[in-house]
Every structure is written in structure tokens, then in C-alpha cells.
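Fig. S4 source data, part A: sequence.
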Amino acid sequence: MQDVELLLKTVKFQVVRREATAEDGRVHAREVIHHPGAVVLLPLLDDGRICLIRNFRVSVGKRLVELPAGTLEPGEDPVHAAHRELAEETGFRARSMDLLTSFYASPGILDERMHLFLASSLEPGPTALEGDEDIQPLLVSWEEAFAMIASGAIQDAKTLIGLLYYGVFRRKGPAGRT
């Protein structure tokens, strides 16, 4: 990369124009959303249910069914953020927090790296929602979660990635079956 120009700075992200030189020597400019990264939680209760959330998203003007998630603070360890966000959005505290994978949800425009954690050995407690959050916990079975994916009721990319990743690579038995 040759040059970065700041176009917009907000509390949680920046929009920059980056120039990059291709192998053939041509210089290309792209507008990119620079984001500090985020954590995504797959809260798994001892009885096998998953804690999803219903979250009103201003950007799409509707309530989405999602896995709990949150933005990393500058320099914050993702494990610390995972514990913080789980408690804030669901009220649960996890005795076990295991990194499953990290991914980019939309790298064509956004450099946000998301860290997917399995939160288990959960203990209930109070939520601590931020003032602008409108979130409601939703406890579902794996069968219900996969039915929501199949029906299109879950449209959030990080939630699709998290549930399907765990279902395929970590859950006992074939994906979608208990």
C-alpha cells in the first residue's frame, strides 16, 4: 500500500481511501471501512440450548436474530472483550471461553476481523446494555437454530458463520443433528 487518506472518523470506525499497486504496476484507490475488530459469542448452555439475541439494527431498520457480539476497544484482548460482551448482552458469565476461529465478514469493503468464541459453563446474571442497545435474549435448541437458518429468519452473516462453523466442525454428530 502506498497511501492512506482519512475520509471520515467516527467513534467506532474510520473510512479511509487506500492506494495499492497491483502486480502490473497500476495504482488502484479503494474506500475501506477501518474497524478495530470484534468478538462474536456462541453461548452454549449446559442443556445444549444456544443463547441468541434479538437485536434492533438501525442500519437495516429491523430486529435481527444474532449471536451476541461487540467491538474491541483499542488494544483490548479479544478474550476480555468476549467475557464483557457476553455479560452485557445476555447476562450470562462464562467459566469457559474458547476461540473457535477468526474471520473477515465483508473484506471487499471492511477490514473488521471477527473472533468467534464458544462460551460455556454459563451462569446467569444481569445484563448491562449500553444506552443505545435494544437487545432481548432468545434461548433456542440447535434444531430451532438450524430451522431459523433454513427459513431465512437468521440473516446476519456473523451468526450464520458462527452457527454453521460450530455445527460442522465442533458439534458432536453430523451438522444439524443432536
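Fig. S4 source data, part B ends here. Strands lie at 3-9, 14-21, 27-34, 38-43, 50-57, 62-66, 69-71, 93-104, 113-123, 135-140.
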